UniProtKB/TrEMBL annotation:
Protein name: LLM class F420-dependent oxidoreductase
Superkingdom classification of source: Bacteria
Signal peptide: none
Organism of provenance: Streptomyces rubrogriseus
Residue span(s) of domain Luciferase-like: 19-242
InterPro entries in the record: Diverse_substr_monoxygenases (IPR051260), Lucif-like_OxRdtase_Rv2161c (IPR019921), Luciferase-like_dom (IPR011251), Luciferase-like_sf (IPR036661)
Pfam family, one: Bac_luciferase
Amino acid sequence: MTTRLGLGLPQMRQYDIGKDVPDVARAAERMGYESLWVFERALFPEPATQGLYGVEGLPWPDTYRSVAEPLVTLALAAAVTERARLGTSVLVAPLHVPFQLAKSLASLDAASGGRVVAGFGTGWSHDEYAAASVRPFAERGAALDELIGVCRAVWGPDPVVYDGEVTKIASAVVGPKPARPIPILLAAGGSGRARRRLVDHADGWLPTGMGAETVARQWRELRELAAERGRTEPIRTVLRVNTRYSAKNYEGSDRRPFQGGVDQIVEDLAAHAEIGLDEILVDVQSTVRDAEELKDVAALVHERARAAGV
């Protein structure tokens, strides 16, 4: 059985969002990509007070200077596609008012015929928290817990009742409802608490392609934890790979995963597919010139990945 393939939609500064998002979404569905994905980056601090991913001294990429709002991007894609699932990898949960986000996702799912996949994380940028978060950075785990609870309540039957730290719903009718239960996937990091949250409260896992051995180890540990905690439902998996595409194959022994030409990217896809994950999200948008090159590279990746048995 081949691994399902998804494609990251164009959100960065080199794209014309209103024109390129529908164009790429339609093309990706025709190519055979089974899902379309967005990510969230709220702002670009200048000067940066914190390194990328919280790593001291690691610069933010220039492409983060302008990243389109994820749900607006998905709505543009939903309007011009019929089959592809519409996923977030990831929404930074504490940057959103839980009730409003739950209702927005439900509306998008109803409008798209039940195609939304909700991927959440806690984020890492102190600047984004200062600008937009509904709770302090120290409470990011609790904020994610409440968001999951609010979503489950709002998407469930009426009357909706919820009593949380931020969200208070005494008893209300809330619609529209999703066309079908929206799966919640989490980008759980290395902490035990994050993994327990995923096993106990989420439908799936959103790992990042940092090398097949690392991802395989994390997947094994997560399944062991699920068995320890008595989980019987399968854990859905969608691997995000952020490619660093170049027109020529990368020369050098220090090549990082998913860096280089199409053949090298596909080689890494094949290695990660052997882990047995359900789906791989391929994001090529950051290192291509424009939407035309994005479509060309995406088409080659899909064609050669399928030929390689991915």
